[in-house]
Design a protein that fits this description.
The chain is of the alpha+beta class. The protein contains 12 helices and 18 strands. Its cofactor is Fe(2+).
Length: 394
């Protein structure tokens, strides 16, 4: 059975975005087959077998501490004198059975289906997503009572895990913050068990503790959501205002009190002027979308450009590309921090790519009324810009 990735995203509809996102936790009960095809134990075994995964990407945690790498791996020196660490399955099993939690970060970069899920979430939530996998076997808490500096969406893939949720003690805490969070209350706000097929959303800053205390092993992953805060907006605005001479000028350290006051007033006037523009927030968010990190997807063997093969498929490797029309009707695509301007006729095929999915070159050509060779040339530009990839249609 293959999971319908968009169906996972469908649970995060308009009601979720308007009433839950960033505000409160939400438990989404589901049937055991809900996430079939996303990631299973055989997939995890294969990732551990076929990849050289070093800490902190792969780690074991117990009691809020990270186990030393040598406890479950052995260094191997190659004939070129490089060193990597080979897992010792028996030692790995021993520590996991003894209460450790296995953590594998950024598994969306290693597993194609999870990569597609992450990209769909990025397109829907308009923010970066990283998927981490967690496996545990005992009631031992790998991380203790803690909070995350980003929102998370939890998908329980197998087994069961008990979540004790305490709520926040500081509004919108940051990784680099000005104050230390107050400790959580002694008693949780809610205690619930995620079973296979269940999903949980938890906003950042919410204290929680997690344990496989139901007598069965647990495999789940979290989709961590990149935060975009007022601090990010102010940092961007400070860069934008470098165009102003006052912002570039030295501070009047040795000036009179009047000169210092005039300087501060001038800076304040510049900032106020920017904030009076009703489009400031939209401009910033559009820039964040336009500079969204593209996923790493080479297009081998097509190193000399995309050939005019109708059966080749193409997809964007960034989920938040923006397509607009300029004053002359040209199609302007911004993605991965780059911008391309194409003729108006290219707009239909670019719209298909921006909407997601994989599309054959001949289908894109029909949508735009272009020849396959013309589409291949356009796609080559996007591949060279590292925002698109091509391959054989599956």
């Amino acid at each position: 059975m293959t999971t319908d990735v968009p169906a996972v995203v469908a649970h995060l509809g308009e009601d979720f975005l308007a009433q839950v996102y960033g505000r409160a936790y939400r438990h989404f009960p589901g049937d055991p087959d809900r996430f079939a095809g996303l990631l299973n134990w055989d997939d995890l075994n294969a990732l551990l077998t076929h990849h050289r995964l070093e800490p902190p990407r792969l780690r074991l945690a117990a009691g809020g501490e990270t186990l030393p790498q040598h406890a479950y791996s052995v260094p191997v020196t190659t004939r070129r004198s490089t060193v990597w660490h080979r897992l010792k399955p028996a030692e790995l099993h021993h520590h996991l059975a003894d209460g450790a939690t296995l953590v594998l970060d950024a598994v969306d970069e290693l597993h194609p289906t999870l990569g597609r899920l992450a990209q769909e979430l990025e397109r829907h939530l308009r923010t970066g997503i990283q998927v981490n996998a967690y496996a545990s076997w005992t009631p031992e808490e790998g991380f203790g009572v803690h909070w995350d500096d980003h929102d998370v969406l939890v998908l329980q893939l197998d087994g069961a895990k008990r979540w004790r949720i305490y709520g926040p003690t500081r509004q919108a805490p940051l990784h680099r913050d000005t104050d230390v969070l107050e400790p959580p209350p002694n008693e949780p706000l809610v205690e619930l068990v995620l079973h296979t097929g269940d999903m949980l959303y938890l906003p950042r800053g919410w204290w929680h503790a997690v344990a496989a205390s139901e007598g069965v092993h647990s495999l789940h992953f979290t989709c961590g959501m990149q935060t975009t805060t007022g601090a990010d907006l102010l940092q961007w605005l400070s860069e934008e205002l470098r165009r102003e001479a006052t912002v570039r000028s030295d501070l009047p350290r040795f000036g009179t009190e009047e000169e210092k006051a005039d300087f501060v007033r001038s800076l304040g006037d510049l900032v106020v002027k920017e904030f009076e523009h009703g489009t400031l927030l939209d401009r910033f968010l559009a820039l964040r979308d336009a500079t969204d990190r593209a996923r790493l997807v080479p297009s081998l063997p097509y190193v000399e450009g995309v050939p005019p093969d109708p059966a080749l498929s193409v997809h964007l490797v960034t989920a938040r590309a923006q397509l607009r029309s300029d004053g002359e009707g040209n199609a302007v695509l911004t993605a991965g921090g780059e911008e391309w301007t194409f003729s108006p006729q290219a707009a239909p095929l670019l719209s298909l790519l921006v909407d997601g999915g994989r599309h054959r070159l001949d289908a894109l050509a029909r949508a735009a009324g272009l020849r396959v060779g013309q589409v291949a040339h356009l796609v080559s530009e996007l591949v060279d810009g590292e925002v698109a990839a091509v391959g054989r249609a599956g």
